[in-house]
Design goal:
243 residues; 6-stranded mixed beta sheet; 9 helices; 6 strands; binds iron/sulfur cluster
Length: 243
C-alpha cells in the first residue's frame, strides 16, 4: 500500500471525526484494501476494544505478545475472550528462546535494563508480526496520562497507520461498555490491578494514583515500547486537517 493512499485514508478518517465503533468500521471496510491488525495485551480494559472489533469482523488478526512472564490469569482470560467473541485469528507472539536466554540468562534483565527486556520480549516479536500490516488498531486512551495524554485517534508511525478508537474514552465510558455489553472482566482487576503486564513488573494500584501507576513502579519507564509516543511520530496533525 503506497504512502499517499495511506495518508488519504488517515486524512479522511480524521476529517470525519470518527471514533469508537464508527472508526473501527471505517478502518475494517473491505474496500480500503488495507491490511489491518489489532494489537492487544488481553489486559484489564482489552475486552472493550475487542468487542468493537468482533462486532465488525471476528477474523481480524489480533496480535498479542506472550513474554513468558504473564500472569496465568491473563493467559486464561485470553482464552476466555477468544471464546466469548469468537475471534478466529489471534496470533500469540513469542521471542526466540535462544535470544532471551542469550540476553537474559538469569531472568533479571527486567530489574537492570527493563527497556532492553521489553525490546527483546515484546517489541521485536511484535514488530516482526506487525510488518505484514498497514494499520494497527490499539486500545490506548488519553485518560491513562503520560505520553498518551494528547494521543490522536489516528496517526502515522513508521510504516504503519496507528488507529486508537478508544482514545477519548473515559474510565466511566469503559465501565459502561463492560456493563452494557456484559463483557467478561480480567480476574485481576477485582484484586486491585488496573493495568496488567508481566508479573514481575506489575503492581496493584488505585485510580487516585493512576491507572498505569502499577506498571514498572519505582522506575522512570512508563511504556513497553510497542507504540512510540505519538507526539514524536505525528505525521498528520489534526490541525492541518481543519479539526
Ligand atoms: S514488562 Fe518487565 S518482564 Fe515484561 S518484558 Fe517488559 S521489562 Fe521484561
Amino acid at each position: 500500500m503506497n504512502a499517499s493512499f495511506k495518508k488519504q485514508c488517515v486524512t479522511d478518517w480524521l476529517k470525519r471525526g470518527l471514533d469508537g465503533l464508527a472508526l473501527v468500521r471505517a478502518v475494517l471496510a473491505p474496500d480500503t484494501g488495507l491490511k489491518v491488525a489489532v494489537s492487544s495485551s488481553f489486559g484489564a480494559e482489552s475486552a472493550v476494544l475487542l468487542d468493537l472489533i468482533a462486532q465488525v469482523d471476528v477474523a481480524t488478526p489480533v496480535l498479542t505478545v506472550d513474554t513468558g512472564q504473564l500472569f496465568e490469569e491473563t493467559v486464561a482470560y485470553r482464552e476466555q475472550l477468544v471464546d466469548h467473541f469468537g475471534l478466529t485469528d489471534v496470533r500469540v507472539l513469542k521471542a526466540s528462546e535462544v535470544l532471551v536466554k542469550g540476553v537474559d540468562p538469569d531472568g533479571l534483565l527486567h530489574q537492570s535494563e527493563p527497556d532492553m527486556c521489553c525490546q527483546v520480549r515484546k517489541v521485536m516479536p511484535h514488530a516482526e508480526a506487525a510488518a505484514d500490516f498497514d494499520v494497527l488498531i490499539t486500545g490506548r486512551k488519553r485518560f491513562h496520562g503520560g505520553g498518551r495524554g494528547e494521543l490522536p485517534s489516528v496517526h502515522g508511525e513508521g510504516p504503519h497507520i496507528k488507529v486508537n478508537p478508544l482514545v477519548r474514552h473515559t474510565e466511566a465510558d469503559l465501565e459502561a461498555a463492560f456493563v452494557d455489553r456484559s463483557l467478561p472482566r480480567h480476574p485481576l482487576v477485582a484484586a486491585g490491578y488496573l493495568s496488567i503486564g508481566c508479573t514481575v513488573c506489575t503492581h496493584k494500584t488505585s485510580i487516585r494514583d493512576g491507572v498505569r501507576a502499577g506498571r514498572w513502579a519505582g522506575k522512570s519507564k512508563t511504556e513497553c515500547g510497542l507504540h512510540a509516543a505519538a507526539t514524536q511520530t505525528y505525521e498528520i496533525k489534526t490541525q492541518e486537517n481543519g479539526l
